[in-house]
Amino acid sequence: MSNTVLEIKNVSKYYGSKQIIKNLSFEIYEGEVFGFIGPNGAGKSTLIRILCGLTPPTTGTVTICGYSLSKQFEKAMDNLGVVMENCKLYPYMTGMQNLKYFASLTKKCSASELYDLIEMVGLTNRIYDKVSTYSLGMLQRLNLAQALLDKPKFLVLDEPTNGLDVNGVIDLRQILRSIARKNDIAIFISSHVLSELEQICDTVAIFDNGAILELRTLADLKEQNSTSKSIQIQVDYPNYACKIIYQQFKVSPELAGNSIILPYNSVKMGAVISALKRQGLTIFSADVTTKSLEEIYLDVIKQFRGKNSSGGVM
Ligand SMILES: Nc1ncnc2c1ncn2[C@@H]1O[C@H](COP(=O)(O)OP(=O)(O)OP(=O)(O)O)[C@@H](O)[C@H]1O
Ligand SMILES: [Mg+2]
Fold first, then answer.
1. What is the pTM of this model?
2. Nearest-CA neighbor of 2 among 65, 47, 56, 61?
3. For 31-52, what is each residue's pLDDT tens digit?
4. Which is the closest atom of ligand 1 to the Cα of 207?
């Protein structure tokens, strides 16, 4: 088992009487890319502010590379790099001046390593331009380079794909994946869109209303994905079709408009179609569909909110 980089134990956070983070515990390991997915207002940024020492948890402990955030703050911070939307960069200086300034504070990054870093984030052509002329994507790249200057073992990114175009998202994915593998660092990325992260994460935590609803490896989620196929048949009298199917196959289809939906393994599609045709129904289409990971994620959120109808966060 790889080394633990982040350990969160029983962390809660209240703002006034409102509990924003609810007794969270989990760990992240070396080389792991950990996706933290939840809708707006779930509490993602609040947890990230706690991880970065910007606000203390009301209860519980955060440990980074074995150092307690509350008791060994500086040592814990030594191992942390952060990319947030309002990171402090100086707009009147060039990208290079910014990086050299931040590198001079800790002197952990040599000149040649600095050039490698700039190359890696894809800013070589613009690094001598003033930051005030940068697009959002370039700012994100510079933020990332700055966060990596001190060679952190733990990199935290809050919604890093916000405002990036498709190419930007693909670039960022590749950069992050290669950093995690090459430097063996743990990466924590928050997002409200699972599909953006599904190609880089090893582990995904589905988070809503201050709590983790599911914590699974991406491989596990994909496995669930491949077994969640369904049969969808468009028919002229869907209610009648449901009755026929129940009588003959003892399964109750779901209704969606003029389509009926059946779990893939519950029946043979050909047999159902023949049965409906024998009763004189007209079939417009019949397909096997697969749920996307995004749909699985939304299902989990919906199920949880259904069980806790007072649990709306917005
Ligand atoms: N300083 C604060 N004081 C009081 N309430 C706060 C404070 N910061 C956040 N909250 C509340 O905590 C809840 C979670 O907010 P947070 O910003 O952590 O969500 P988020 O998951 O990052 O959402 P988004 O996807 O919109 O960025 C919200 O209801 C928010 O209003
Ligand atoms: Mg946020």
1. 0.81
2. 65
3. 999 999 999 999 999 999 999 9
4. 21
